[in-house]
Amino acid sequence: MAEKITPRGTDYSQWYIDIVLNAKLADYSPVKGCMVVRPRGYAIWERIQAEMDRRFKETGHENAYFPMLIPMSFLKKEAEHVEGFAPELAVVTHGGGEELDEPLVIRPTSETIIWSKYKDWIHSWRDLPLLYNQWCSVLRWEKRTRLFLRTAEFLWQEGHTAHETEKEAVEETLRMLEVYRDVVERHLCLPVIVGKKSDAEKFAGAVSTYCIESMMQDKKALQSGTSHFLGQNFGKAFDVQFQSREGKLEYAWATSWGTSTRLIGAIVMTHSDDKGLVLPPSLAPEQVVIVPIVKKDTAEAVLAYGEKMLADLKAAGLRAVMDRDDSQSPGWKFAEWEMRGVPLRIEVGARDMEKGVAMLVRRDTGEKLLTETGAVVAKAVELMATIQTNLFEKAKAFREANSKGVADRAELLAFFGIDQGESAGTTAATGGFAEGLWCGSRECEAALKAETKVTIRCLPLDRQEGVTGSCCLCGQSAKHRAVFARNY
């Protein structure tokens, strides 16, 4: 219940962990850095997965599965790729009691194993495009972990496509980025900024990386999905050539794109409060809970009243449950279901039954709505859409209230609460999203990160026209408009 939750203002990190554990979304694993996804957490992931998968198939993609064990030599074929992932690799050196001839890497991502097979499957332009996706887990040996947000093993999807031309591959990269934006905003109620990563922040082995960035309640950014234009890097690394329409040999063009169970952490950190979890109705395992308030002499009638209402709600397509537990008080149950994040609670007792009414309580606002029994189902259906919209608009308003344009370094540091005479380790975590001009220099970007832990989250795609002026970091001529933030 609420007393189990550390208030956000006291310790935001502990608040987050308290909600994940007490709302029974996940638990710690015996293996350090891994997690157990509990049924309620997995139910949310299944709903995200189903919506993503539907959109993938609508855009022509097929699901496949590739092995989790990858020969070490495969990763070494693409220099940037192996360098980028080397610190996170888990390597199998023995199997069946014997040392392996070649070490095998547990997949941190699947570009190499997939492109080794694309070489066998692609021979002509007629074989293209290949539009494949796989749902799986990956392993990255993270040193600092947090449930859902960053764990050694996590669930995700990874799309890997091969194309005839550069133009088609770039279009695919941006198409899938838009799929992510639409699903995340529409179903997770997370307003995002759509942008391109700086070269320093792009995926290892990519020509360009695009992303969606969302703001958490502690004003930090969370990367919520990425889509990569890989050029011909993997085509050349694995010698994936095809005969073009002109009869020439060409290397295939590639993309990859992915989202993960990190999105569940984003939902928690964006919408929840000090009472516990708050879930968008479209993803909630239970959209409505009926809590009967019973006394011995009226228990049978009240429960029957609740059962009829439950049947009507289910018939309307709502995921509804009734709390029949008679070992706890109604107040305890109210707090417990609030902890679990159920969007709508319906309270029914003997007096409500006599008057032909029920009390509907919104989880997002706490608003109580006394409703006639005959109108309960229609009102509940209406509230699902209302709550979904409200969560998105509330999160969007929070982001806008904590975003600011900055003209120079002094304004940027002041926005993040950094005294120019202090080190990054002694500054307060304030700020949000700062938007300013940037020269494009890696050195300029790296110096900011080292000094302040503030990074360039992305270069917003809709804000790059007519960039003129000076870089807010160094004063040199600017090339891009960038969003700066601390991040997870």
Brief characterization of the structure:
With 488 residues, this protein is of the alpha+beta class.
Describe what you observe in this structure.
- The chain is of the alpha+beta class and 488 residues long.
- The protein has three domains: 2-271, Bira Bifunctional Protein, Domain 2 (BirA Bifunctional Protein, domain 2, 2-Layer Sandwich); 288-389, Anticodon-binding domain (Rossmann fold), CATH 3.40.50.800; 403-485, 2-Layer Sandwich (Translation Initiation Factor IF3), CATH 3.30.110.30.
- 34% of the residues lie in helices and 27% in strands.
- The chain contains 14 helices and 23 strands.
- The protein has helices at residues 12-22, 39-58, 72-75, 79-85, 111-121, 166-187, 233-237, 262-271, 299-315, 330-340, 350-355, 376-401, 409-415, 442-452, and strands spanning 26-28, 35-37, 62-63, 69-71, 91-95, 98-106, 130-139, 153-163, 193-196, 208-215, 221-231, 241-243, 249-251, 253-260, 288-293, 320-322, 344-349, 357-362, 368-372, 403-405, 433-438, 455-460, 480-485.
- It is globular.
